[in-house]
Design brief:
It is built from nine helices and no strands. The chain is mainly alpha-helical and about 240 residues long. Helix 2 packs antiparallel against helix 3, helix 2 packs parallel to helix 9 and helix 7 packs antiparallel against helix 8. The two termini are about 35 Å apart. The mean pLDDT is about 85.
């Protein structure tokens, strides 16, 4: 869909530049274009860097969360096959909801008891039993993983709300429009090559805004953030990994 928008923008800008060129002095057009390009580049570069850092932090935290989930599930096998099966059911519900809705933060928006259910299952399985040292060590590691799950969840909650506010978006869009207008002011004398180049540069400006939006909404590389990791967890439970 984004590619279609870019093609339409390219065609429109090329047509406008060719059929209805705006006659402005070359020096004035160059000044407008230089200033608007400089400001647009500085601000969008800052916003992209910030949102890219947020994106990477969330992906890293999701990997940490999923890694602890996987470790807890495998550790239940040491205690009881039945307990591991129950843990698998709890985990399946958690990740199935994420994949069904396409919302990586589904369990932040809606009430979730995944961590609590896994903790209660651990207590019910081995809370009042005496195990050999290796199983005691396993239980200690599982408790540590449950604590890590809670910390990872809190980090994801904090990171998800660090989106660009409306004021920043208004500024980016205004600068993008200003840059597009400045680009159209550059004399082209109805030359087809000049008009095509204006269309290409204009489409690239819009692509930068789209890139920033995808980073802000966390949909740059995956339709659902953490989708691949979620599927991997389900494959582990189903015995395919």
């Amino acid at each position: 869909m984004n590619n279609l928008y870019l093609v339409i923008i390219f065609i429109v800008l090329t047509a406008v530049s060719f059929f209805a060129p705006i006659n402005v002095a070359a020096d004035s057009a160059s000044t407008f274009l230089t200033v608007s390009t400089f400001i647009f580049a500085i601000l969008t570069g800052f916003f992209i860097a910030r949102q890219n850092n947020r994106y990477n932090n969330i992906r890293s935290t999701i990997s940490e969360f999923d890694g602890n989930i996987s470790a807890i599930y495998r550790s239940f096998e040491t205690l009881s096959a039945k307990a591991q099966e129950k843990a698998g059911e709890i985990i399946k519900v958690h990740y199935s909801k994420i994949l069904e809705t396409g919302e990586w933060n589904y369990h932040f928006i809606h009430k979730s008891s995944t961590i609590t259910d896994l903790g209660n299952l651990l207590v019910d399985t081995g809370g009042d039993k005496n195990y050999p040292s290796i199983q005691n060590e396993t239980i200690s590691n599982m408790i540590a993983s449950l604590d890590s799950l809670q910390l990872a969840r809190k980090r994801m909650v904090s990171l998800q709300i660090e989106r660009m506010p409306t004021g920043e978006w208004i500024l980016v869009i205004f600068l993008a429009l200003l840059l597009l207008v400045s680009l159209l002011l550059v004399p082209s004398s109805s030359a087809i090559i000049d008009s095509i180049m204006k269309g290409i540069f204009g489409a690239l400006i819009i692509q930068v805004v789209i890139l920033l939006h995808e980073l802000d909404t966390l949909k740059l590389f995956e339709s659902t953030l953490g989708e691949t990791s979620a599927k991997d967890i389900l494959d582990i439970i189903d015995g395919r990994r």
